[in-house]
Structure formats: C-alpha cells, structure tokens
Amino acid sequence: MIGSLFIMAVPVLALPAANIFERQDACKASDNYAAVDVKGLPDPWKFADGKAVTTAEDWTCRQAEMSKIMQQYELGDYPPAPESVSATMSGNSMSLTIKVGSNTKTLSVAITKPSGGGASGGPAIIGVGGISIPVPAGVGRINFGNDACAAQMNPRSHGTGWFFDLHGKSHSAGATTAWAWCVGRIIDGLEQLGPEKTGIDTKRLGVTGCSRNGKGAFMVGALEKRIALTIPQESGSGGAACWRISDSEKSKGKNIQTAGQIVGENAWFSPKFNSYTSKTTSIPEDHHFLAALVAPRGLFVIENDIDWLGPVSTTACMKAGRMIYEGLGVRPNMGFSLVGGHQHCQFPSATTENLNSYINKFLLGQGQTKDVETSKATVSMNDWVGSWSASPKISLTAA
Ligand code: MCU
C-alpha cells in the first residue's frame, strides 16, 4: 500500500516547482467578479478579464473561475473538505462521522451494493432524495437523504440541516450547494472503506435526482469532480434551464418558473442570489455553465415538455452546454433528452436505451454513448450564443 502510494507520488514530485507555481497563479480565481450587462448566455470561452481560453490548462482555470462566479452570484460558498471524516460499514449501512472545526455530525447512509463487481467493486448511482430512472443490473444504489443535509421546505429553510449544523446557520450555501458538499462526504467514506467493505468502485459513481432533487443532482455533478456520470431528471428552472431564457419565455406569456419566482418558493439557492433575480442579464454566468463544470465527464440531461420546467429554456441552455462539450472534443459525453407526454418524474421507457448508453460507457465501461440530442422545442440559438468567441477546439478526454 505504502509502496504504491509512493510510486503514484513520483510524477507529481517530478514536476518542476516553477511550473506548479505558474499554474496555481494562472488559476488564481478572484473573490469578486463584476456584474455585467449581457443579454445572451455568457461566453464560456473567455475569462472574466476578456482573455481567450485556448488550451486545456486555460480550460481548467476557466472552470475554476466559472465555479467561483456561480458561487458568488447564486450558489453561495462551496466549502473545502472537512478536517476529518471517519467511516464504518455494517451490513448495507455506512456510518459517517464528520468534523468541521469544533462541530461533529454522525449519520448513516443506506447502500445497495452492486452485484458482480469483483475485487475492485462495481458502479453505483447516488440518488438525491430517491431514484426515478431505471437502474440496470450490476449497478448499486446509494440513498442520499438530501433534506436532512439542507432542508427545502420554503425560503426560510435556509440554515436548517446537518450541513448548517457543521458550518453555521448563516453559511451562504444554498440547499443544492450544501447537498453537493454532503455527497462529497459520502464519497470520502466510500473511498476510506474501499471496495472490499462497500462493494463500490468510487471511480464509477453516478448521481441522479428528479425535479427539485434534479437541480441538486446537477449541482452535485458540477461541484463534486469524483462523480463520473451526472443524470439530472426534469430539473427545469434552477437546473437545466437558463435564467435568461426562462425570463424571455415568461415575457412571451409562458407559465414558466423564473429566478424571481424561485427564491420566493424555496431555499435551493444562496441568499446572495436574491439581489440578482430581477436582473438576470447582470449575472456573469448562466446554467450552461453547469454543463461546463461537469465536462468532460459524463452528463445525460433528461427533461419534460411541461411549461413550468421551460422546455424552450432547457433545450437552448443544454444545446449551449453541448456546444461546450463539442469545443472540448467530447460532444458524445453529454446527452440531452426532452421527451414529453408523461407525468412529471415518470421516466419514459422509450428513453431507456439512450440512458443506458451513458450508464454503460461511464459506469460499466462498455461501448459508446448514442450522442443524444432529442427535443421538439424550437429554439433560436443565435439569440443566446451568437456573440460567443470561436470555440478553441481543445481536445479533452473523460477520465
Ligand atoms: C421542477 O422542480 C420543482 C419546481 O422547481 C417547483 O417550482 C415545484 O414546486 O416543484 C418541482 C418539484 O420538485 O416537483 C416535485
């Protein structure tokens, strides 16, 4: 064990110190990004200071910047890993003890172990508040009780839940950001225990959730880089929809959820967001950046044609997301599937084959995705991405 850790550390130590510092400097994100006046979706290929993104290293820095911008305007702060996490496994239940400063929390997580994973374990999907997609044989399930981590009863729920017990009631994180941090602790526990005890290979983790929990699943995939496949289902506004496009649809008379409405309904976003919901064109980000943060990892976005979710908004926003994947040379790693004519959170069986192509590739290590882009919504992409600088044609491959 010690031997293999030592071998893994060698290439890192071999990096010239000057390079390391140069990279850290280049990636230095600011704590304060100025508001803008941008009608279309902000350009992912340009840093906030106007510099073009041209290399894979630039992209890593731009991702760090986009994350900081999203935290500043709508997500609230995404805290670093805690001082300590200790895990034990008993049957199908993992117990975690998490310490942040002088605060400690103990909780248990229910796991359905994958079958047939062998010594290195098998894949598993983390369900944010449950799973409403079909999970193929051989893939385990992990139940993340998100409401206990950060409550979502109404806007006054902000500050309630074990995330806030650890970080303080006035921490700026919205519930969806808190959920991403809490899921990170589950992954810490799985890593610590290893596949012999959990049956799970932490390099093959997916996350899903529907509706409000779909917003959460998207945020988990965007902020927690150990997730290999993100499957937000019918997340609508606050998830796969872009704030600007939803506002534009609302102004055309659609019954669609907007930023202005959402902060009055629940605590999904940071209180920091309240100052911007009436002027979404001033925010130097939008939700295509969520796809940008997941890239190049696997992403399969499922939507519905229910007006409230914003089918035009989710289609255009996620098309912009796929343009980002394309610019990174990994377009098939992201799929978008809007199939209507069914109840909210009822998975349409005709989509199973497409979904499975992403699960097979990213969790089971088999075959290629079907490079899905399905929607009947008519969108005018030029309005939303027309001012973007040319895509840099970087070539990234998913880990
Ligand atoms: C689509 O997710 C939400 C939606 O944002 C809310 O406005 C509505 O109240 O609830 C949806 C939901 O979570 O349904 C289960």
From TrEMBL:
InterPro entries associated with the record: AB_hydrolase_fold, GCE-like_dom
Example of a GO MF term: carboxylic ester hydrolase activity
The enzyme's E.C. designation: 3.1.1.117
Keyword rRNA-binding: no
Keywords assigned: Hydrolase, Lignin degradation, Serine esterase, Signal
Gene3D superfamilies recorded: alpha/beta hydrolase
UniProt keyword annotation of Zinc-finger present: no
Annotated 4-O-methyl-glucuronoyl methylesterase-like domain residues: 97-329
Catalytic activity: a 4-O-methyl-alpha-D-glucuronosyl ester derivative + H2O = 4-O-methyl-alpha-D-glucuronate derivative + an alcohol + H(+)
Biological process per Gene Ontology, one example term: lignin catabolic process
Classification via Pfam families: GCE_fung
Domain of life the protein comes from: Eukaryota
Family: Belongs to the carbohydrate esterase 15 (CE15) family.
Protein name, entry field: (4-O-methyl)-D-glucuronate--lignin esterase
Organism: Thyridium curvatum
